[in-house]
Structures are given as structure tokens and as C-alpha cells.
Specification:
Protein name: HXXEE domain-containing protein
Keywords: Membrane, Transmembrane, Transmembrane helix
Transmembrane segments: 6-26, 60-80, 86-104, 111-129, 135-158
Number of helices: 7
Pfam families: HXXEE
InterPro entries: HXXEE
Length: 177
């Protein structure tokens, strides 16, 4: 077994560790900071806050579970098939996601859910990327990073739509006899 076969298993672990902070804190954070966000970012708040008002912690966890399952499947396939290109692209997209949380915190100038785990995970991810760049061609890393980023953006869009649908379904389920 080579290093990459061990390293790839860190992705699902880092992902769920990071996203647990988001699951736990997103709703209370939005409630606590609603007025601040509306005053500081009025246009963005008008677009995003109604969406997050419809999303429950359960539906957010549902979306995270979908991402975790996708990452886990890709990790297993990478390990079994000894093919790491897609894994690399998604891992680099995840690392970019951590960097985005850092910038969110700088822009908002307050704690943002996921910043603590982003700060913890980012050095580990950068170390892994440094290792990946030594094992694979730069062209492969760049190409699959772009592909991974596209997959991430599309998946996030789909997940957020399904979170809203899932929230409505849960509300109906809760009131059924």
C-alpha cells in the first residue's frame, strides 16, 4: 500500500469533521446574526436569508449526508480502482471551500460557522495537496481540480434545492397522523 492509498481516507474524515460544525451552528448563528447580516449585507441577505429560513437543521444535515456519501463512494472507488484523479479534483475543491470560509469570516468580521474546523483542516489539506502534486502531473491536478470544482458547485446547487424540498416534506411528515 502506498501513501496515497492511506491519505485518501482522510477526505471523508476531514469533510464530516468540518461539516459537523456547520450542521450544529448554522441555524443558531443565522438567528443570532440576522439583524447584523441585514444591515451589513442588505442585498445578499434578501437573497440568502429566506432560503435559510426554510432550511432546518435536519434538512441541512440531509444535504451534508448526501455530500458525505458522494465523497465516500468516490474515495472507495479511488482506492479499489487505484484511480485518484476525480478524488484529487474533489479534494482540492473541498480545500478551496475551506479557504472560502476563511474569507467569509474576514468579510463578515465575526465567527462564521465552519471557520474553526476550516482553520484546523486547512493545514492538513495543504499538506495532502503538496503530496498529491509530487505524485501526479500538474496537468492532471489542474484539470481534475476544475472538474471537481464544477461538480462541487452543481452539487451544492442541487443539494440546496433538495434541502428546501426535504424541509417541506419533513413538515408534512411531522403533521401527518
Amino acid at each position: 500500500m502506498n501513501n496515497i492509498q492511506v491519505i485518501i481516507w482522510l477526505f471523508p474524515i476531514l469533510f464530516i469533521f468540518h461539516d459537523l460544525e456547520e450542521i450544529i451552528f448554522i441555524q443558531p448563528w443565522i438567528s443570532k446574526n440576522r439583524l447584523y447580516l441585514c444591515e451589513r449585507f442588505p442585498i445578499l441577505s434578501k437573497k440568502l436569508l429566506p432560503h435559510f429560513d426554510n432550511i432546518t437543521t435536519s434538512s441541512f444535515a440531509f444535504g451534508v449526508a448526501e455530500e458525505f456519501i458522494l465523497i465516500s463512494i468516490i474515495t472507495v472507488i479511488s482506492y479499489v480502482m487505484n484511480w485518484y484523479s476525480l478524488w484529487i479534483g474533489l479534494f482540492i475543491a473541498f480545500t478551496f471551500h475551506l479557504v472560502v470560509h476563511c474569507f467569509q469570516t474576514l468579510i463578515v468580521r465575526k465567527y462564521v460557522p465552519a471557520i474553526v474546523t476550516s482553520i484546523f483542516c486547512l493545514p492538513i489539506c495543504l499538506y495532502i495537496i503538496k503530496h498529491i502534486v509530487q505524485l501526479f502531473t500538474l496537468g492532471t491536478v489542474v484539470l481534475y481540480s476544475i472538474f471537481g470544482f464544477i461538480i462541487m458547485v452543481i452539487n451544492l446547487g442541487v443539494i440546496h434545492k433538495f434541502m428546501d424540498v426535504f424541509s417541506k416534506w419533513l413538515a408534512q411528515y411531522e403533521h401527518q397522523r
